[in-house]
Every structure is written in structure tokens, then in C-alpha cells.
Amino acid sequence: MQEKLSNVERKILKILQEDGRASYSRMGKMLKMTHVGVRKHILSLINRGIMRVSAGLSPKAMNLRHAIILIETIDDKSASRIIERFRDCPRLVFLSRLIGGNNIIAITVAEDMNVLESITSTCILRTAEGIRRSEVIVGSSIIYPEYLPIRIVAERSSPPCGVDCCSCSRLKNDICLGCPASSCYKGFL
Fold this sequence. Notes:
Largest sheet: 4 strands, antiparallel
Strand order of the largest sheet: 2-3-1-4
CATH class of the domain at 65-152: Alpha Beta
CATH topology of the domain at 65-152: Alpha-Beta Plaits
Shape: globular
Keywords: DNA-binding, Transcription, Transcription regulation
Domain HTH asnC-type: 9-35
Oligomer: single chain
Number of strands: 4
Distance between the termini: 39 Å
GO cellular component, one term: cytosol
CATH superfamily of the domain at 65-152: Lrp/AsnC effector binding domain/regulation of amino acid metabolism (RAM) domain
GO molecular function: sequence-specific DNA binding
Protein name: Lrp/AsnC family transcriptional regulator
Radius of gyration: 20 Å
């Protein structure tokens, strides 16, 4: 059963969406309650899995490009396999199954159009086994949300999808920067 948010919880979430660094004290003053009460509500929201605190990055400030990739797979097993393979991709900011069929939607970010072209034409997401067809929609600029859950890789080794970026001709010819998880990545993410 879906859990209903209280009025106080909705107000706290609204404040945090506007300023994720708002202090308990400041929120308490705004809500006419103690900072301890605010903290209890926030911990309850976190413990119930309703919210989490994380850093969102601005694609506009980082001058990133984005594309929506729509994928139709041949069967449910192929869709599940593709989702599992790419769920940890540092370039994906959104990945979901669609209702009605074996369809997947992915939203990806890239440093420039050459990298975006690599992701949408050469890299494995659109060419993986089990894909019947795919479509790419390239966006010009993201209006909302201003900040996205762009994954930063702290220690580079190899892409989670298993692709070998280091031997890719597009990387060797400086057309693509590679995967941010790869040890041979040449970009700024």
C-alpha cells in the first residue's frame, strides 16, 4: 500500500528540493517546530525509503549533451538482460522499462556530440544482443530538472557493461573520450 505524506513531510521535502543544504534549525523556524522535530521527520523519510540525500549535478553548468534512447527488445529476457548490464552505467541518468511490451527508455549524458554519437551508435547499449529496434532523440538543453544524478566514478578500472573502451578506434582517434569508469577515459567527469 502506498504511504501518504503528512503536511509537514511535504513542506520539508519542498524546502529541501529548493535548498538541499537547508539546516534543521532554518527549516524548524520556517515550519514553526524544533530542529529536533525536523530531524526526526527527515530520518523517517530516509528510513522509509521515500527520500535520500545526494549531490545532483548541473548538465548546463558542465556543458553536457543528452539523448533519450528508446529500445524495443525481442523478448522479456532480453530486456531484463540489457537492464542488468547497463544499470550501473555512469553515463545513464535514467533507465526504465515501459509498460506494454519489452520496451526500455534510457536517458544518457555525454561531454560533447562526438561522445553522444559513440554512445548512441557505436557503443553497446543500442547494439546489444536481443534488441529489435531503437530510436535516439537528441536534446538541446535540459530545462527541468536543473540538476541530475550524474554518476561520478572515483576509481577508474573498466566499464560496468564490460565493453573494452581502451581498444576502441573512436577513443584511439580522439573522437570519443571513453567511459568515465574506464582506466583510459580522457574526459572531465
